[in-house]
Every structure is written in structure tokens, then in C-alpha cells.
Amino acid sequence: MAGVPWDPTQSQSDFMLRDTCIVLSPDDDVVGSSSKKAAHVFSPGQPRGVLHRAFSVFLFDESSGELLLQKRAASKITFPNVWTNTCCSHPLHGMEVDEVDGPEDVKDGSVKGAKNAAIRKLGHELGIEADELKVEDFKFLTRLHYWAADTVTHGEKRMMNSPWGEHEIDYVLFMTVPSKESVTLKPHPDEVDDVMWVSQAKLLEMFDDKTLLFSPWFRIITNRWVIGSTDSESGEKKAGWWDDLDRTMKTDDFCDYGTIHRFDPPEEHMGGAGDAGEWLVGGDEAVKGMENGVMPNGNNVNGEVVGDSTKKQGAYGKVKTHKESKLSQILHLDEVWSAITLLYISPLESNLESPLIRETFNPLDLKFCDDILCKVSRSFAAVIRQLPSQLLVDVLIFYLVLRALDTIEDDMTYFPSNEEKVKSLLAFHKTALVDPTWTMMGCGEGDERRLLEEFPKCHSVYAALPEGSRRVISDITLRMATGMAEFVDKDLGQGTVDVAQYNRYCHFVAGLVGEGLSRLFASSELERSALAGELHLSDQMGLFLQKTNIIRDYLEDYVDGRAFWPQSIWKKYSAGGDLGYFANPATEEAKKAGLCCLNDLVTDALELAPDCLAYLSKLRCAEVFRFCAIPQVMAIATLDRCYHNADVFTGVVKYGRACRASSSTTQSTCGGCTGSSTGSPPASSRGRRRRGGPASTIRPTTGQPERAAPSSS
Ligand code: D61
Ligand code: MG
Fold first, then answer.
1. Which among 506, 509, 560 is the best mutation to test ligand 1's pocket, defined by most ligand atoms within 8 Å of the CB?
2. Measured from the CB, is residue 666 less than 6 Å from ligand 1?
3. Helix (H, G, I), strand (E, B), or coil: what is residue 517?
4. Could you tell me the distance, in angstroms and rounded to a whole number, from the CA of residue 411 to the centre of ligand 2?
5. CATH code (residue 161)
6. What is the pLDDT of residues 650-687, one digit of tens each?
7. Is residue 289 part of a domain?
């Protein structure tokens, strides 16, 4: 993979977002990548974060035998204020000097990747110059697998539900220098608050000092290996690696490359936002079934999230739809070509009638699911129904389950309090997905309400899916619900606070869909199993679709009192200090500012495009490719239409007939879902939000409008 220069001047939060950690199987095989941030989030859906690779350097002064410690800066996001070994960090994907080791590198002890990463970080954190240490001089000793919630280090109070933690397979690296003077120490203030060379005796004294904090991994490594011990039963003395540095560095006596030593953290580092408890005591048995660095259903959720129930958001008013003129539509030759292709050359066909599907599922329940899918999203229905039969129903149910969850999220009046809504969201995976009789009456509108009311039919089909698919669906449902719950109490009248919050929301409601889909693709064996590990790229696929919708739906969302445009962006352009300013620009100047703001957001979204293309390039099954690529292409077209287009501020920007026609063919092949006789009510009555995929603007020329498309004509 081509490397991108790593920027050591970034802020801590940029590192969190941009550093791409190496996601691991419990056997230390590379299975994917994750942003540093996503990997370190502890939540009910991933109570121990995401397992990734790390290294821990212990640097000794040969002459005095002292070890260099660092105190992590108070501004660090994870484990601030703790004393720890010389340097601990992560090898990353995509570095100019490769940092990714494979099994062979571990077997022969070379682990050049981890060592390269160590050199990079010793320079960045401590200011040690590149020529002062040599990659060859590191001694790789062993690996340990541990996790720890960051419950202790955030200030005075124990953060029982800390959202952060570590979950790593850590490569322990020793290095010696002839004397302290051999290395320059210029600690980076964002990383390190203090450094200290200590003897063994001094360190033991510090360990006893209750006013000092230590990183859990440093304590584990030191007590287990670095400092010698006496066996309590035999009284036998065991040498520690620090006791005879010469032997440690020059022989392989202490090296163990075949074992991954597993440790649960000390009691005080259990818990965290996902309420994680003892786990690795079970050794290799315990880690069986890990997927993409996460233990599926490995949650210890207490399910009780208490919310402030005061805020209710307003129902939205109807906003105008901007359509394109006929002439301008005809000028989109590419779209016309797509339409012709789909109409006359190769219409998407539904695979729902396949014998495999008929035999596996209750036909009446499946028919309900298929019908309701067509009602709630024509566009996704079209791309889902052309999937191969071994994947189709899994994705269909995945869609309906999340649509049902989203209906709960989006109903602004059904629940007596936010607290009740949060409860309902967080329970969904163990009510709707477990109890075959579960229903919810009167929530949402139209076909979505029906989906919830007749949910047992969905459950019946869900229950007949392979266990692996159910696990993915249930896991993503819980994680999405947890994310939605986090936002229930937020006042979004003026949008999200900043880009981080905007990204976070999009991750929960769409990025996770991407992850779930990749896992379903992989488990169907239509795609390579490694796709399931492409957490980052999968996430970006969802973000791109969701951001496009959010940009397009500016006015609807604003009128609705639930907007997502980030303040850190739009406040740069709004003299009035209100998001609604763009809808009623007082001057020419103000109008221009609005367009600049819009362009800023479109540009932000477009930054995701390369990752989306990278994701698409990994697909090898034509139908899966089509399923993924069509919504992306529609999103690009939507962004194209929105760029520098003042219509975004006065209504909904829509596609023309060409795109819609292309989907009408897909409808014609899907028996039983032509238009609507039951019909959705016009979606305007009470706080229902309506957003389809970007492809939702592909609609049939006849029948009722797509759920996403309030029609002005
Ligand atoms: C490949 C192909 C399709 C992909 C993908 C990768 C990655 C992510 C996604 C689709 C998801 C994109 C969501 C974009 C549309 N946004 C919404 O519908 C918002 O709700 C989000 C929560 C429910 C997500 C449901 C969903 C959507 C598409 C799927 C799927 C599940 C499962 C399988 C396949 C596609 C939007 O909804 C409001 C409303 O319309 O009521 C919102 O609340 O913003
Ligand atoms: Mg929603």
C-alpha cells in the first residue's frame, strides 16, 4: 500500500481520527484497520473496544541500569496523567516506512514494522533523534494481549462509564543505550508531561506511592517479566529481564514468540461504558468467536441510560421540491444512457423467487417483508432484490430491522419522555430481535408504523437466517441504538457542534450499516473474508451516503428542529449566527456566504470519495458491487447537483426523470410492489422525518413518491 507521510504536528484529536490502527484477530493476524479513535471507544456494542496492535518500548541506560519512564500528558485522550514505560503506541497501516508485521516476522523475532513504529514514536513523543537509535538494536521479547477501560485516569473521580480504553496485542521491545547522554530528550508537550530515569528500587517505591498513577499495561508487563520474582510455593527465584540486561539483550533466553500472553486488567480497570468484566482468564478459549477485533454479543450492557426528558423536538413543515427542467435533464446524457441500459439492456432482476429462499423462509412472512421494503424504500428495494439469493434475505432483514429502529428514533411525539425513547432504543435488540411476538403500536407513520406493528413477520424471517447473520444484525442494531440514544438528548436545533460530532452521528446511523454489510458479504462467502475487517472503509461508505442526505436536506431538517450541519463549519459563514440565516438571506453578500458554506460541506463529504472507491475496488461479486455502487453514484450526482446551488436553501433538490426511469424497470420486475394501494399518508403530519438513501431520488414514474421525496407537484 502506498504510504502517506505521517504528520507529527497534528492535534491529539487529529491523531485519533487519522491514525489507522491495525485491527487483529485474537491470534494476532491482521484483519483490518480502524481509526485510532474508533478502536479505543468502549461502549455497550464493543465493551472492550477493538483489538489492535501496539508496542511497548523499555529503554535502559546500560551504565546505571536505569529505565526511562514517561508521564503521559494530561491532555492525552486515553490514559492521561499516568506514568508508564518509555514509549507505548501503535504501528499504523499505510506508513511510508512499513509498520505492519506478518506471522513470519513474529516467528523469527524481527518485527521490523513494530520497531519502525517505535523509532517514529520515540522521536515524536520524546524528541529522540533518528540517528541515536537503531532499528536493529531493539530486542523483541514477547507479546501480551490485554484490555483495560480508562476508568481511573480521567481526573480525580473514577470514570465508571469511561468511553475510552485499550485493547491490544502489545509487542514488548527492549533497547539499551550506553549512557543517558546518548539520547536527546525533548518531550513533546502534547504527549509527555514528565520523564524520569529510575532504578528498580526507585520504581518499586513509586509503585507503592498511592498518589501516583500507572498505566495498566506497564504494571502487567513489569510485574510479570521485567522485575524478578520469588515463586510463592517453591521459594525459587525467577530472574526478571531487568536483572540481567546483558543476557536479555544478547541471548534469546527470555524470548517467547510462540505465545500470546493474555491478561484481564486489574479490577479498577474493568467496567467502562460497555461494563466489561473478566474475560481473558479463560485464555485462548475465551477469545474464540472474536470478529474484527470485537467480541460479538460480548456486551455487558446494563441497559439503563437515563436521559433528560424535557426536550421535545418540533414537527417539520412541508418544504418545496426543486425539480429540474426537461431540457436540463436531457443534457445529462450519462444518466439517460444509464436509464436506457437499465430499461432495455439489463434490467435488475429480483432473486427473491429462488428455490433456496422459498425453502428456507415462511413465504407469507417473507412476502410481507418484501412488500414493506418496497414501500419504505423503493431505491434500496431495487438494489437489495438483485442480490444473490444467499445474501438477499439477510440484507433485506438487516434493512428492515434498522428501519424499524430508525422509526423509533425519528418519532418526536410518541414517547412520553426522552428517557422512555432511550429505553426503547436500547432494548430493541433484546425485545424485537428475541421475542417473536414483540410489536409496537402507533409509533411512526404509514408503512413504517406498519413495519413496527407487524414486526413478528419480520422476526419470523430473521429467526430463520443463519446464526452468523443474526449476530451481525443484532450487534449492529445494538451499537446503532446506543449511538442514537446518545443523541436523543442533544439539542440539534442549530445543527451538530462540530465536525467530530457530525461524523459521530453519521457513523452511528450509516457507518455501522456499512460495517454490518461488509460482515454479511464476507459471511455469505460472496466476498473475501478480509472485507469484514475493512471497518474504516465500510464506515466511510455509510458516511458518504448519510452526509449527502444531510447536505441535501438542509431545509427540511432545519424546519424540523433537528439539523446536522456542524456549527464549526456554518458559523464561519452565517453573520446572523443562526442556521436558518441561509434560508432567508437578507443581502447578496449573505446569499454568497450560504453558497460558500454549502460548498464547504460538499467538499468535506467528497473527501470520503477516495475511500469509497477503495472499498468498491475490493468487491469481486458483480451483484454486491452493483448493490454498493449504485447508491454511491447517486450520492455523487446529488452532491454535484447541490454544489453552489441556492435551491438547497429553499427546498429539496431532486433529480430528474432519467434517474427515476431507470428504477421503474427494477420495479416492474418486482412482483407485488407496484405503486401503493394502501398508500403512505403524505409524510408531514407529525414530526416524522423522511430520508431515503441518496438513491431514493430514483423513483418510478408511477405510484406513490419515495419516502424521501415530498412532492410539490
Ligand atoms: C453499501 C451499500 C449500501 C449502504 C452502505 C454500503 C453503507 C451504508 C448504508 C448503505 C446506509 C446508508 C444510510 C443512508 C440513508 N440514511 C437513512 O436512512 C437514515 O437512517 C439511518 C438509520 C437507519 C439505516 C437504515 C439502512 C439504510 C440502508 C441500508 C440498510 C439500513 C441496510 C442494508 C442496506 C442498506 C435517515 O433515515 C430517516 C428516515 O428516512 O426516516 C436518517 O434518520 O437520517
Ligand atoms: Mg433517524
1. 509
2. no
3. helix
4. 9
5. 3.90.79.10
6. 877 765 433 433 433 333 333 434 333 333 333 333 23
7. no
Query: How does DSSP assign 218-284, residue by residue?
Result: HHHHIIIIIS-EE-TTT--EE--TTTTHHHHHHSSTT-EEEEEEEEPPPGGG-BTTTTB---GGGHH
- The DSSP string of 107-165 is HTT--HHHHHHHHHHHHHHH---GGGS-GGG-EEEEEEEEEEE--SSSSSS--TT-SBE
C-alpha–C-alpha distance, residues 196 and 185, integer Å: 11
Quote the domain boundaries for residue 35. Answer: 19-269
Q: Is 251 left (phi over 0), alpha (psi -120 to 50) or beta?
A: beta
- Check whether residue 431 and residue 543 sit in a common domain: no
Distance (angstroms) between ligand 1 centre and the Cα of 500 equals: 20
Q: CB–CB of 679/670 below 8 Å? A: no
Q: Phi first, then psi: give them for residue 175, nearest 5 degrees.
A: -150, 140
Domain assignment present for residue 5? The answer is no
Q: Which three cell numbers stand for residue 320?
A: 418545496
Q: Which residues contact 372 (CB under 8 A, 6 or more apart)?
A: 400, 447, 450, 451, 454
Above 50 in pLDDT, residue 692?
A: no
Query: Phi then psi for 193, rounded to 5 degrees?
Result: -90, -25
Q: Which ligand number lies closest to the CA of residue 410?
A: 2
326/415 same-domain check = no
Number of independent structural domains in the chain? 3
Q: Report CA(399)–ligand 1 centroid distance (Å).
A: 8
Same domain, 147 and 49: yes
CA distance 234 to 222: 21
In this predicted structure, the answer to whether residue 15 has a pLDDT above a threshold of 50 is yes
- Sorted by sequence, the CB contacts under 8 Å of residue 539 that are 6+ apart come out as 38, 507, 511, 512, 514, 515
Q: Specify whether 203 is located in the same domain as 56.
A: yes
On whether both 195 and 247 belong to a single domain, the answer is: yes
Looking at the fold, whether 646 and 501 belong to one and the same domain comes out as yes
Q: In the block, which residue shows the cell 547522554?
A: 181
pTM of this structure: 0.55
Does 448 lie in the same domain as 360?
Answer: yes
CA 541 to chain centre: 11
